[in-house]
């Protein structure tokens, strides 16, 4: 039993308007809130990636796990690395191979490059050169002393 006067009740009309406004606000918040969450997640990740490079640098290993430089020297020759990079990893202009001894990359970077090189070097999968052999080769390359600087070579300073 509804009376016709209830539809024209000003309190009911205000309440309906308020409920409608609340539902509009709720629908807006429901659509915007996931974007805010995604944005805050991306922002937080960016802060960690760019604000803490020291922590990331410490995570990459400069030395391979349990490696043998003498075995690495044998593998460097046996696997044919010397054919392009020279017997001491000094590089060669004839082949265009860069100096790799001693390596300027961390072991992780070295391993990634050997597995998926960018230039003319063919990729060496884990089946071709197992991780342990690659660690030994890296240890051999790390054992090679840096060449002297030009200012330290007397013949060049005459």
Protein model, in words:
With 158 residues, the chain is mostly helical. It folds into 2 domains: 9-59; 69-147, Cytochrome Bc1 Complex, Chain D, domain 2 (Orthogonal Bundle), CATH 1.10.760.10. Helix content is 56%, strand content 0%. The protein is built from 7 helices and no strands. The protein has helices at residues 4-7, 10-51, 53-59, 69-78, 82-85, 107-115, 131-143. Helix 4 packs across helix 7. The longest helix has 42 residues, at 10-51. It is elongated and about 105 Å long. It starts with a helix and ends in a 15-residue tail after the last helix.
Compact description:
The chain has 158 residues and is mainly alpha-helical. 56% of the residues lie in helices and 0% in strands. It folds into two domains: 9-59; 69-147, Cytochrome Bc1 Complex, Chain D, domain 2, CATH 1.10.760.10.
Given as residue ranges, the uncertain stretches (5+ residues, pLDDT < 50) are 52-60
- Arithmetic mean pLDDT: 77
**Structural class based on helices, strands and sheet pairing:** mainly alpha
Could you please say which CATH topology of the largest domain applies here?
Cytochrome Bc1 Complex, Chain D, domain 2
Give the radius of gyration: 33 Å
Number of structurally distinct domains? 2
Largest sheet: none
State the CATH architecture of the largest domain. Answer: Orthogonal Bundle
Helices, strands, pairings?
Blueprint: H1 4-7, H2 10-51, H3 53-59, H4 69-78, H5 82-85, H6 107-115, H7 131-143
What would the keywords be for this entry?
158 residues; Cytochrome Bc1 Complex, Chain D, domain 2; mainly alpha; 2 domains; elongated
């Amino acid at each position: 039993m509804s009376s016709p006067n209830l539809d024209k009740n000003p309190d009911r009309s205000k309440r309906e308007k308020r409920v409608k406004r609340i539902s509009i606000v709720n629908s807006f918040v429901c659509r915007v809130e996931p974007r805010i969450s995604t944005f805050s997640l991306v922002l937080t990740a960016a802060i960690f990636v760019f604000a803490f490079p020291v922590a990331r640098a410490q995570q990459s290993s400069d030395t391979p796990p349990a490696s043998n430089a003498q075995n690495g020297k044998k593998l460097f020759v046996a696997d044919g690395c010397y054919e392009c990079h020279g017997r001491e990893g000094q590089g060669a202009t004839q082949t265009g191979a860069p100096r790799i001894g001693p390596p300027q990359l961390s072991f992780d970077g070295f391993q990634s490059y050997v597995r998926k090189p960018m230039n003319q070097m063919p990729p060496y999968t884990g089946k071709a050169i197992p991780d342990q052999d690659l660690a030994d080769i890296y240890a051999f390359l790390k054992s090679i002393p840096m060449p002297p600087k030009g200012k330290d070579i007397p013949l060049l300073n005459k």
